[in-house]
């Protein structure tokens, strides 16, 4: 029963560190962006300790096939956006693609808890069997290529343009504009449904959220 495991893990993390994790599954984000929806849930529910703002909210819209994890101010240093994205792509997405939603959420939360363990120098029982090696060299290299290669191409382009302008000869170079998007966020509206499921959705500590987080689709 993954719902039970999710609740137990969230409770264990909260008891040991005061950090709070909330999970919500819905049918559709409707007219809201996933980022806005998850962040507002965090604010309205007050997820996280009021003094430390160490809350985390995961929301998945099944019909939209989109998800987002929002982090409170204090959680952003523990789980930076880049780390969140890497965990989601390597752990969450493969499970969601085969409709193993409960398992995917639990394994993803395990990975989040592993990062919390490192900061607090603890070991949670709920992280036993966590896919700790899932985000390894392959994901690191993929992320490096994703961010580094477009920048390298841009530097080469600038260098060649300088050579064309200041180099010998009368050749004139026309530069073509090249647009590259490193982060794409699109929110599409789909048919609404009131069906939703939440785990650990009450009794939070009054934490605040400032826009940190990462999301995507499957």
UniProtKB/TrEMBL annotation:
Keywords: Membrane, Transmembrane, Transmembrane helix. Residues 170-201 have a biased composition (Low complexity). The keyword Transmembrane helix applies. Residues 4-111 form the TPM domain. Residues 202-218 have a biased composition (Gly residues). The chain crosses the membrane at residues 147-167. Residues 170-218 are annotated as: Disordered. This is TPM domain-containing protein. It comes from candidate division WOR-3 bacterium. The lineage of its organism: Bacteria, Bacteria division WOR-3.
